[in-house]
Amino acid sequence: MRCIETCREDFPALHQTVTGGHPLVYLDSAATSHKPRSVIEAEARFYQRDNANVHRGVHALAERATEAYEGARRAVARFIGAPDPACVIFVRGATEALNLVARSYAQPRLGPDDEIVLTPMEHHSNLVPWQMVAQATGARLRYVDLLPDGTLDLPSYERLLEGGRVRVVAFTHQSNVLGTINPVREMAERAHRAGAVVVLDGAQSVPHQPVDVERLGCDFLAFSGHKMMGPTGIGVLWGRRELLESMPPLFGGGEMIREVGLFESTYNDVPYRFEAGTPPIAQAVGLGAAVEYLESLGMERVRAHEERLVAYALERLGQMPDVRIYGPRERGGLVSFNVEGVHPHDVATILDQQGVAVRAGHHCAQPLMRWLDVAATVRASFYVYNTPEDVDALVRALEAVRAIFGAGATPR
Ligand code: PMP
């Protein structure tokens, strides 16, 4: 077991000074996480030693590359509790994974009498693909209501399912804005009783808490490597085998075929059917190393560490009278907020001048911004390498914002 308290040492990019010579305080891991040395080295080692294309060659390097790529698939499957590695499809990221399900699973099946249930807290990547499906098929989009604290109104979810038309329920495990952790198991059970398939956006949960597809009961799970210490350009769609096998491929090309004729082709098995062309091999190897690193910390301990940090952040920010915090108390490791009277981009800019990296904007969740009745928020997000001192640095930097703008200034 690796120690969370000292793991910060493993992340080279965290040890630098930024704007004005301030030490970097990185509070933007919900956008993308930093990478431990073991991930950076695994990817470099692959290029230095094993680099070859996968599956097609018989030479030594091709075999090593294939073994490394398939080893990463096995590691990912183990990490999410998936018994069958063949159900792990490597894609570019959560966005591609969600588009693949929407386009390949839902679009051919749905028609004007069908409904897709979503929530208003979805990231655009779990909204727009479903809007496209709705436009192509005539299916109707329905939304679960939100309660004032930013959790889902489960009775409204029940009512939607009672209509008997819902074929797909797609929602996020953890909100990238509110931090809300949705009750997946309960929602999946209810969806299945209504005959719907459950698509889970795990982009913000898989990196931060134990995720077990069998226990959660979802039918598809989408997530991105770069938010879980892995490289960019790699992500995962996991699906139940019978569903994956029933889906036509989205992209045609090499690797995804069994037999190609001039006028038609037959397709390869799952997962290769969905991995047309040369896949992101080195990135998969890096993701495998990221999974091993997270396993060495223990996902229960990752979650516990973030729970402590976010509780401390809520306490400290809650003491600032002109800071408005969004979302429930029980949440994942992030806090979205606004400073009364100061535009979130100004807040983020002043924080950056003190070395504190946060994100400001709509966080690819414009419908949620409308629900919150704000144009944007500031978001501080935590990971294993953050400490209570990082929260203190955030609070100190926010004091500077208040000093510059005058605490409690009237909103612009
Ligand atoms: N869903 C959620 C909840 C996210 O936070 C993100 C990334 N911000 C995505 C999906 C999309 O991930 P990616 O951009 O890596 O495809």
From TrEMBL:
E.C. no: 2.8.1.7
Catalytic activity: (sulfur carrier)-H + L-cysteine = (sulfur carrier)-SH + L-alanine
Residues in coiled coil: none
UniProt GO molecular function: cysteine desulfurase activity
Enzyme class: transferase
Entry superkingdom: Bacteria
Residues in Aminotransferase class V domain copies: 25-394
CDD domains: SufS_like (cd06453)
Cofactor(s) needed: pyridoxal 5'-phosphate
Keywords: Pyridoxal phosphate, Transferase
Position of the signal peptide: none
Function: Catalyzes the removal of elemental sulfur and selenium atoms from L-cysteine, L-cystine, L-selenocysteine, and L-selenocystine to produce L-alanine.
Similarity comment: Belongs to the class-V pyridoxal-phosphate-dependent aminotransferase family. Csd subfamily.
NCBIfam families: sufS
Protein name per UniProt: Cysteine desulfurase
Species the sequence originates in: Geochorda subterranea
